[in-house]
Design a protein that fits this description.
Length: 447
């Protein structure tokens, strides 16, 4: 039998003799040279390959499971961040858990939160009611009629307002040098006092020259669901005395009113109803019975409101009185800026009169246009009026022209910027058809 091979020398080299030829043949593969431990001389690759030190361990794999090995420094710095631990595979590879994504930016989170909040508020409002409250039927055409029914006067008007308390103001009114009073007087004086709080008001007006007293009482009841009104008027002659009680009530999309009283020497009964059909359309009707002359009065009202183009476009175009920007005639988002158009139609069955009112808000709180057409379908008589209102920084101008050639204008201006500053007004009316003129001015002082 062949003799057993000699034992291998210890790692790290030593002073033992060189291995036999069998060991040299087994170490024929080229290896890196090494230094012998004892003699300090360089040995040939063949004689020292077997005692070479173990190679260093491979570097850690990169985060995320990449295939290329990162330098040790980068591995250490990358491993400093808190990440999920890696799991070693069976085949010598590594499977690392992916790092969690970075948190979203604070601004993005805020925008998302505000957008979600606005959307939820809009959805909640739409769920309650998508139709607006139309308001009282008596006020359906009031805002459009004021543009063509100007308060022009002659002579001098002076109103002195005094706030006695946060709940009680008083007003002294003088009208001097006028020829518009029905009883032929050229001057008049009235005193008005009012007490108001969150639940209602009490108002009284006294005219010593005429010997009349007018009073009003408004009171909210049922937690604001209804409003009770009482109107009283007495005079020295006794011909125009009246007492009228009203009850206003309504819901989310409608309003109603009931009347009962004494007027003209007989009882009066009345009722009206105003309903929003869509967000833009509202219809209503009113009926009143006067027992003194046994007349039944009825009228029907339709109001339609739509958005309109604003006077300033999104590109910063110049303003235009007609609501068209200087940059073009394309459709703008006027509704977002408050511009609107309103058409009110009213038919009085007792008088057989049809009236159409149009109001155009060109620029909110700046320019408003209005027009009115009154016609009788039976007699074919008609009248047209066109008006405009311009609000400036400290003044307001109203103009009105009708089909007969009558021109009216009113100018109001503030004489100071502080609250309670007096205001000065000038009124003029020229009727070319009747060859009449009327001019006046007024002063309003509030304390």
């Amino acid at each position: 039998a062949a003799p057993p091979p000699p034992p291998l020398p210890p790692l790290g080299g030593g002073s033992s003799a060189a291995p036999p030829a069998e060991v040299l043949s087994a170490a024929a593969a080229p290896t890196s040279p090494s230094k012998s431990g004892d003699g300090g001389s360089m040995s040939s690759p063949r004689t020292t390959a077997y005692c070479e030190a173990a190679p260093p361990p491979p570097p850690l794999p990169p985060l995320g499971g990449g295939s290329s090995a990162a330098p040790p420094a980068e591995v250490i710095s990358a491993a400093a961040a808190p990440t999920a631990p890696s799991k070693s595979g069976d085949g010598g590879g590594s499977e690392s858990l992916a790092a969690p994504p970075p948190p979203p930016a604070a601004a993005a989170a805020t925008d998302a939160s505000s957008s979600s909040s606005s959307s939820s508020i809009a959805q909640a409002a739409a769920a309650v009611s998508s139709l607006p409250n139309p308001g009282p039927l008596e006020h359906a055409s009031l805002d459009a009629k004021r543009l063509v029914a100007l308060d022009t006067h002659d002579g001098v008007r002076v109103d002195i307002n005094k706030q006695l308390s946060p709940y009680m103001p008083v007003v002294h009114s003088f009208w001097l040098g006028t020829g518009m009073l029905p009883d032929g007087r050229t001057n008049t004086y009235t005193f008005l006092a009012q007490v108001a709080d969150e639940a209602g008001l009490l108002m009284a007006r006294v005219d010593p020259g005429r010997g009349s007293v007018d009073g009003r009482i408004h009171r909210a009841v049922l937690g604001g669901l209804a409003n009770l009104k009482l109107q009283v008027g007495v005079s020295a002659e006794g011909q125009g005395d009246q007492v009228l009680g009203e009850a206003d009530f309504g819901g989310m999309t409608w309003t109603g009113n009931l009347k009962y009283g004494s007027m003209g020497g007989g009882l009066v009964y009345g009722a009206n109803y105003f309903q929003s059909v869509t967000s833009k359309l509202a219809v209503g009707t009113e009926g009143m019975y006067i027992a003194a002359n046994q007349n039944l009065l009825s009228n029907y009202t339709v109001r339609y409101t739509t958005e309109a183009r604003a006077s300033v476009d999104d590109d910063g175009g110049e303003e235009s009185v007609l609501g068209l920007s200087s940059s073009g005639h394309g459709g703008g988002a006027g509704g977002r800026n408050g511009a609107s158009s309103t058409i009110i139609g009213n038919y009085n069955a007792a008088q057989g009169m049809l009236s159409l009112n149009y109001k155009r808000v060109v620029n909110p709180d700046r320019v408003t246009l209005g027009a009115e057409l009154q016609c009788s379908p039976t007699s074919l008589e008609s009248q047209v009026l066109v008006g405009a209102e311009f609000n400036l920084t400290r003044s307001k101008v109203n103009l009105c022209v009708d089909g007969t050639g009558r021109v009216q204008s009113v100018l109001e201006t503030k004489l100071g910027m502080a609250p309670g500053s007096p205001s000065l007004s000038f009124a003029a009316e020229v009727d070319h058809g009747k060859d009449t003129m009327r001019f006046g001015y007024g002063l309003n002082m509030g304390g």
